[in-house]
Amino acid sequence: MLQDDFILRQIREMIHAVMRMLFQVSASELSPEVIEDTSARTVLEELLALTDEGQIDEAENQLYEMTCDGDRQNLEIGLLFYYNLNGKDDDFLEAHNFSREEIMTGIQDLADRYQLSGIAEAFRTEIL
To answer: How close are the terminal C-alpha atoms of the chain, in Å?
Structure first.
């Protein structure tokens, strides 16, 4: 449980740092509203709705497909997706066969697709 709390905080801090560096977003709580482009915000909200319905794998698969093209807007969507997913409680994640470690792995994969693996790896190293 303590390790999950530590991972939760590390994920939150990592996403905040990357959002500040790449997108100049410094909100204390990240929400879909930080995305200025309305169509991109709608895409994120659709992914979050799938997650809320417990369809985490489906939402993550859609995110993967979107982020294969290297579009920077999709990186922002992906980071906010994982930030939101990280905000779910442990019972929700467990009920839908997901873990904080899988969130971190998803972020690492996302970072790799955008050649940002060094940033994500720095945080991951602290966790492991």
So the answer is: 15
